[in-house]
Automatic annotation (TrEMBL):
E.C. code: 3.4.21.-
Segments for region (Disordered): 509-535
Xref: Pfam families: AAA, Lon_C, Lon_lid, LON_substr_bdg
Localization: Peroxisome matrix
Any GO BP annotation: protein quality control for misfolded or incompletely synthesized proteins
Name of the gene this protein is made from: Lonp2
Protein name, entry field: Lon protease homolog
Residues involved in ATP binding: 298-305
Organism: Ardeotis kori
């Protein structure tokens, strides 16, 4: 029931690997507990202060005896301290303390310094009377002195050890609360360290790693626990033990099963699935293939990541995704050296620790978005990881020993190859994953996305019904994307809304509900406009019996998702001369682009806006030059009727959207068509889109990204597409149903382009050519 009142001065420690704190307190006095007031959350008690120093010194009756005792005690204390090495600052300080402190305080202080058991320390603490305390401490001092003498005799040359013992101990002298728990903890820690050592010895790490670990273990044992490095070293050793040096899962690979699994998980994407199966087949035939690293390149949301996951599933391997977007520090890949505070292993080693086997599938997501900074180039670090010739001895800076990555199957994904560093690109085999057609999206939605969303929202097909027309509506009017991610989100939004209805039990009264919606003015308009009134009455009727599903029709869609985000605006924007539709390729898939031109009085200057790159600017100059040289042939004149188109005229060309940087040669034909429309005053057909590079002679050269561009035109509802003739082969990749909806005009020169772009053709003035041939 006796304790020490103390003032907490400092608390240091860490929570890892397990809570370990050092508490610095200043002891004030002894106290006795009179009455415990409460125990939780912390004990509160009424206490009585037991020792007051002045009280003891003023006690006249025992003064003499005490004086003798304290003198004796002082002598022993001095003798003990003088046996130690005075050159150690802590010892010298202790010597000074002996003289400066009141004698009455000495027993407490010395007891905490000398080697005593916790039991003995507690006895001293319990000794309230000073006289008793002196009497009890003296034997302890004598024992320590004798011990030291003996030690000095037996280990003369090794005096250092004693110094160390005492040099460390004074640090703890203020720590007056000796408790059994402390001892227990120390023992527990010791046990942990022993266990760790055992684990290291029994683990299957490489010889080199084992050597390093044992060396670190030796250091760890000598370190006091309060040293920050203790935790660091321990973390390191624990990581080394946890790493899957030799642990792997057994590949189960059966091509037929793999094909079924891939087909079940993913609709369409035939080319990608074919290549993946080839890859897996080669792995099956030639065990342990040092094959190329596959890199899936395509717009977001086309299933690159999920194919990666399926591959892991077919192989029966663990899957781990490493997001590389925005990583600009090479230590993210390769780890920090252990000398830094807070150093960590890189993501590769961390991933291995997480999955716990050495042959997982690692998906390196977004390799095209690696950054670069002063902290080094992460792409360069990745080179070593991805090179099959090097990665069997990948050295993470934190581990500082080689780890064999050759069993890991790496798959990378990217939106574009343009920003992948060439050296990295060289290590990988690129597989293009183009965007989906509308039909494919509908199938994907009904086969995969809707069932998944239903499950996530706890709904059943008996509660909600999304017909294909609704899905098509979502695809065309609420999303504009190459992949299916927004479509998935919109379906999620619908499911949420339905979940609320179902949860409220409101769908049972769907009829009044529907009527209520109908009352809104917006909806009334649509009922008449949409010419699909039967679906509403359907819903109402269907909803009557409570167990019927909620049908998502156009009106429900509008209620849930709001008014449509995208409308077909093509024809409207082509209602004046000087506008043409081009096709552009972006990392997010294909897109249609309205190229606009206007002319005004001026000095023959060309203004280009829309953040264009150099190649695109050159295309614009090429287009103007070609038109100027062919103005007579086509009867193109400027405002004042002159065939010199730039005479007293300025031209402004704009490529929306203004904030997006654009470059590439493929807008050449569009610019020519747009300017031809401007100078001839004729409208370009509103359902025609085009792409192609031009030359000064008026030839049309092939360009890339045809499939994505055609899909974009199809999405936008265009009907005719003008392509370079040499791109004809690319059309084979396009799904038959898309091809059927579109007319392709293959052009090898600009005359053919202009002819196809204007209703009724764009005739060359007869006679002009005769004249020129005469010359
Ligand atoms: P990415 O990695 O290409 O950006 P994800 O792999 O994350 O795209 O795909 C987004 C979502 O679309 C996933 O939920 C995925 O299941 C789904 N998805 C994409 N393509 C298909 C497909 N062909 N079949 C089934 N689901 C698909």
């Amino acid at each position: 029931r006796i304790g020490t009142a103390a003032l907490a001065v400092q608390v240091v420690g860490s929570n890892w690997p397990k809570p370990h704190y050092t508490l610095l307190v200043t002891g004030l006095c002894r106290f006795q507990i009179l009455q415990l007031l409460k125990e939780k959350p912390y004990p509160v008690a009424e206490v009585e202060q037991l020792d007051r120093l002045e009280q003891f010194t003023n006690q006249p009756k025992s003064e003499e005896e005490l004086g003798e005792l304290s003198e004796q005690f002082y002598k022993y204390a001095v003798q003990l301290v003088e046996m130690l090495d005075m050159s150690v600052p802590a010892v010298a300080k202790l010597r000074r303390l002996l003289d400066n402190l009141p004698r009455e305080a000495l027993p407490d202080i010395l007891t905490s310094i000398i080697r005593t058991s916790n039991q003995e320390k507690l006895q001293i603490l319990d000794a309230v009377r000073l006289e008793e305390r002196f009497k009890m401490t003296i034997p302890l001092l004598v024992r320590q002195i004798e011990g030291l003498k003996l030690l000095q005799k037996t280990r003369k040359p090794k005096q250092d050890d004693d110094k160390r013992v005492v040099a460390i101990r004074p640090n703890r002298r203020i720590n007056h609360i000796p408790s059994a728990i402390e001892d227990e903890e120390e023992e527990e820690d010791h046990d942990d360290v022993v266990m760790l050592e055992k684990k290291i010895r029994t683990s299957s790490m490489s010889e080199q790693a084992l050597k390093v670990c044992l060396k670190e273990m030796k250091r760890l044992k000598k370190m006091p626990q309060s040293m920050p490095e203790y935790a660091l070293t321990r973390n390191y050793l624990e990581l080394m033990v946890e790493l899957p040096w030799n642990k792997s899962t057994k590949d189960r690979l059966e091509i037929r099963a793999a094909r079924i699994l891939l087909d079940n998980d993913h609709y369409a994407m035939e080319k990608l699935k074919k290549r993946v199966l080839e890859y897996l087949a080669v792995r099956q035939l030639k065990n342990n293939l040092k094959g190329p690293i596959l890199c899936f390149v395509g717009p977001p949301g086309v299933g690159k990541t999920s194919v990666g996951r399926s591959i892991a599933k077919t192989l029966g391997r663990e899957f781990h995704r490493i997001a590389l977007g925005g990583v600009c520090d090479q230590s993210d890949i390769r780890g920090h050296r252990r000398t830094y505070v807070g150093s960590m292993p890189g993501r590769i080693i961390n991933g291995l620790k997480t999955v716990g086997v050495n042959n997982p599938v690692f998906l390196l997501d977004e390799v095209d978005k690696l950054g670069k900074s002063l902290q080094g180039d992460p792409a360069a670090a990745l080179l070593e990881v991805l090179d099959p010739e090097q990665n069997h001895s990948f050295t993470d800076h934190y581990l500082n020993v080689a780890f064999d990555l050759s069993q890991v199957l790496f798959i990378a994904t990217a939106n574009t190859t343009a920003t992948i560093p060439p050296a990295l690109l060289d290590r990988m085999e690129i597989i293009q994953v183009p965007g989906y057609t509308q039909e494919e999206k509908i199938e994907i939605a009904h086969r995969h996305l809707i069932p998944k969303q239903l499950e996530q929202h706890g709904l059943t097909p008996q509660q909600i019904q999304i017909p294909q027309v609704t899905t098509l509506d979502i695809i065309t009017r609420y999303t504009r994307e190459a992949g299916v991610r927004s479509l998935d989100r919109k379906l999620g939004a619908i499911c949420r809304a339905v979940a609320v209805k179902v949860a409220e039990g409101q769908h049972k009264e769907a009829k009044p509900d529907r009527a209520e919606v109908g009352e809104g003015e917006d909806c009334k308009e649509h009922v008449t406009e949409d010419a699909k009134p039967e679906s509403i009455s359907d819903t109402a009727d269907l909803a009557l019996p409570p167990e019927m599903p909620i049908l998502i029709d156009f009106h429900a869609l509008k209620d849930i998702l709001g008014p449509p985000l995208y409308e077909m605006e093509v024809s409207e924007r082509l209602s004046q001369p000087g506008v043409a539709i081009g096709l552009a390729w972006t990392p997010l898939g294909g897109e249609i682009m309205f190229v606009e031109a206007s002319r005004m009085e001026g000095e023959g200057q060309l203004t280009l806006t829309g953040q264009l790159g150099d190649v695109m600017k050159e295309s614009a100059h090429l287009a103007i030059s070609w038109l100027r040289s062919n103005a007579k042939r086509y009867q193109l004149t400027n405002a004042s009727g002159s065939f010199d188109l730039l005479d007293n005229t300025d031209i402004h060309l704009h490529f929306p959207a203004g904030a997006v940087t654009k470059d590439g040669p493929s807008a050449g034909v569009t610019i020519v068509t747009c300017l031809a429309s401007l100078f001839s005053g004729r409208l370009v057909c509103s359902d025609v889109a085009m792409t192609g590079e031009i030359t000064l002679r008026g030839l049309v050269l092939p360009v890339g990204g045809i499939k994505d561009k055609v899909l974009a035109a199809h999405r936008a509802g265009l009907k005719r597409i003008i392509l370079p003739r040499r791109n004809e082969k690319d059309l084979e990749e396009i799904a038959v149903n898309v091809r059927q909806d579109l007319t392709f005009v293959l052009a090898s020169c600009l005359d053919e382009v202009l002819n196809a772009a204007f209703d009724g053709g764009f005739a060359v003035k007869p006679g002009v050519e005769h004249l020129s041939s005469k010359l």
